[in-house]
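Postdoc handover notes: sequence design on the structure in folder B. Input tokens:
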């Protein structure tokens, strides 16, 4: 990394922060659903045992609890959207390409999010964006 830019921290874009919040909410919802499913399966199994439909021996009990736990873990794994970051990156790249067709040079994908929502852009006489400094 160039020493000039070594001290600059990576700033999170608004879209990235919203996606982070969404991922956390989906994770919590998946964990709650997994725990509730695990508990519901245990209660149903307990009802079956108390009604006499299942004879509880040690290996069958352990096997049933393990199956219920696996179902809970599966719900958590399925709840996490793995393709979401990829879809966002593809959408940003598409935006960058579309802006290039409009003769807007965007060097960083994160800038597409900001530039795509802009209505007025102030530049100097050569058309270069500045940092509002002389």
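Designed sequence:
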């Amino acid at each position: 990394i160039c020493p000039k830019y070594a001290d600059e921290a990576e700033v999170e874009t608004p879209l990235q922060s919203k996606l982070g919040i969404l991922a956390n909410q989906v994770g919590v919802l998946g964990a709650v659903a997994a725990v509730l499913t695990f508990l519901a399966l245990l209660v149903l199994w307990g009802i079956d045992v108390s009604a006499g439909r299942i004879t509880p021996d040690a290996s069958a009990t352990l096997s049933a609890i393990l199956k219920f736990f696996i179902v809970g873990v599966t719900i958590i794994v399925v709840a996490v959207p793995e393709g979401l970051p990829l879809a966002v990156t593809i959408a940003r790249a598409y935006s960058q390409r579309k802006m290039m067709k409009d003769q807007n040079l965007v060097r960083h994908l994160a800038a597409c999010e900001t530039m795509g929502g802009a209505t007025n852009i102030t530049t100097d006489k050569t058309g270069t964006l500045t940092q509002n400094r002389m």
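Context for whoever picks this up: The radius of gyration is 26 Å. Don't rerun without checking with the PI first.
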